[in-house]
Amino acid sequence: MRILRRGKKTSVQSACGTRLSSGHQRPAFPALGVLWLSLEPRIMFDGAAVATVDNVASAQLAQSQADASLSPDDVTTTDLPPSAPTGEPHFNTGDQALFDALAANDASTARQEIVFVSPCVRDYQQLLDGISPKVEVHVLDPTSDGVAQMAEVLAGRTNIDAIHLIGDGTEAEMHLGSSFLTQDSISTTYAQQFKQIGQSLSQNADLLVYGCNFGRSETGQLAMSTLASLTGADVAASTDRTGHVTQFGNWILETSTGAIESSVVISEAGQTVWEHALATYTVTNINNSGAGSLRQAILDANANAGADTIVFSIGSGGQRIRPTSALPTITDTVTIDGWSQPGFTGTPLIELRGDNAGAGVDGLTFSSTSDGSMVRGLVIYDYSRDGILIQSGADNITVVGNWIGTTG
Description:
This protein is of the alpha/beta class. It has helices at residues 47-68, 93-107, 124-129, 146-154, 183-187, 191-198, 217-231, 268-273, 294-303, and strands at 2-4, 18-21, 37-39, 113-117, 136-139, 160-166, 169-170, 173-176, 179-181, 201-210, 234-237, 255-256, 280-283, 308-312, 319-321, 334-337, 350-353, 364-366, 374-376, 378-381, 386-390, 398-400, 403-404.
């Protein structure tokens, strides 16, 4: 049994605009809550075993009826004394038939498949509800190394037929717990752990990666090949958006390194209920603009129709971003997740400081078309106006675990 922890969410809903000040007074935000979840094995007994037992019972009943129809003259008796006890258990033929049937059923046990889910995935519980109870599921701790957690779960186990990884992703990138998977980190930082994971897999095991665009381009293909080489598994991934059709996504894993024997682990019902996509844009530097900047991530998320997630992987520990002008207004459903920064343990590590942004500038602005957006785990301060501005008409904007107007 593992105990996992995740943040407690609060919502800010705006009907006529909401301003969260970035002045130097610290607002009364709720403390980061914790929800303790105990994950227990989910076991389903195969109905085939029940059917087998019924068949054996029917055979035993038929034999009993046949014995009862015999006349006394048809019965042969002997005057030999009963055998002496041998100390061994005694089974009649009906018992043996039952045991043989159960043994045959046990020999055809179902495939062993394990799912690892990043808790940063929005409404991930809906996805869990769409997974068969026969499948083992682990929700990763967002504050700990996700690859290390996987290796720990699999340590000492063998003949695992499939591993399913569910997390927000983009080309050759995925966040699992506090781990940030890239081609470079897979081949260096996590290489030994993936080799260890491979020791738990069966000969023809599959590794299915559910994250938008993970297998797209030469970089994505190289990341897949590296995973296959380290684990010995056949790897499948997507080359487009993974998720609900309204988010321009699907649940087809279009590319693979070998023959994939496993099916998509999310049921059709689960795919219908979960109305999001496993998309992410990663901030990798503190620059004002350009590739890897927060500004570029917001521009990309706005341009890509459907819900998106912006995550951070800027080295390790605290980082300060100081824009030299106003950041783009958020016009689509976007999650800005400061909790994703490596080293996060509950205290925000990403600072958004506005002292260089100019006069009349807000920190983050959510437009009327950004319904369902969220910002968490940021320090926002020193802006001439508001740290967060939620414009009139925006609905269901979640602001949680941020420090606004203070550095602590």
